[in-house]
Amino acid sequence: MFTLDSAHQLKAKFGDLISEPAEFRGEITVKLADAEQIAEVCGFAKMKLGFEYLVDISSVDNYGEDPRWTVVYDLRNLTNNAELRIKTDVSEEKSELPSVLGVWATSNWHEREIYDMMGIRFRGHPDLRRILMWEGYPYFPLRKDFPLAGKPTNVPEVAFTEISPMEGGPFVTLPSSGDAVSREPRVRNPE
Amino acid sequence: MQTQSEIGYNSKIEGDVVITRIDAALAWFQKNSVWPMPMGLACCGIELMAVGASRFDISRFGSEVMRFSPRQSDCMIVAGTVTYKMAGFVKRIYDQMLAPKWVIAMGACASTGGMYRSYAVLQGVDHIIPVDVYVSGCPPRPEAVLDALIKIQNQIGKEPILSKLNLVAKLTGSSKS
To answer: Which overall architecture, per CATH, does domain B34-152 show?
Structure first.
């Protein structure tokens, strides 16, 4: 299997930095122990293993755990139709790791989005501005400790925000075998 | 052989003169040429296009002239989710429209924020601009938008335009009357 071979080649090249490949539902994930090496690992995966396409970068907030952040890189080899996932942990104190912009140009906006939503900085990114929210917005709204209803802010002449009324929400669905009416999202206060 | 057939409007028989009040005439002109400013921000914008297309045909009500310049339009149709990032631009475009001007909040999102109870979405466009008609629906049927337009037309039809202008003239001192 091509992806598994690639993961083993990564491990052969980088040694203990790369974990044993974990397989879940046919998808292979390796964990990189040191986030500072992410650009080298990704460069090797692209140049030597043929993962020329970066599908996505995403980030996970493991709120209450240490290290707090997990950054996930989804790689695709178009020639062999193979996908490889690389995960790496970043601590909250640091909240920084190298940019992979030198490997895939497409990571530009992915990294900006993670910076905007999660507040993880990418060292070496030439233009690390917010991409969805506006310059001057003081929070990182996808963090677990940020309330869904938002917080009041005001940047004069740019934008303001207010706390949105939840009015009994958030609206949740419960697993059931009932009909569409009983399954649809409703206010369900915890008992 | 000369035929004597009269087709259409005969001014000799029916006359040239219509008698009305000038307020009523002005309101009649105005209400049948409400030019919309299509503020299509989300999926309601697609439904707004259907209102303009042949099946529903907003031109039956004199509003087919969608103006993409705020300076040429009378009625802003806010169709879709107004995010906080967009709110400033919606306000600025509304400010650039010339009075008299009207606003239709089309759909749940523009009216109240809709299903987006979140940090990113303005909870109703009436937080930043005055709204004349709210249209329910997610998205509303095109008929509902036409109904909102008719409601605005009825509103315009009752407005004493001339006396309002006189009042403005008095307040600003730009006229001797």
So the answer is: 3-Layer(aba) Sandwich (3.40)
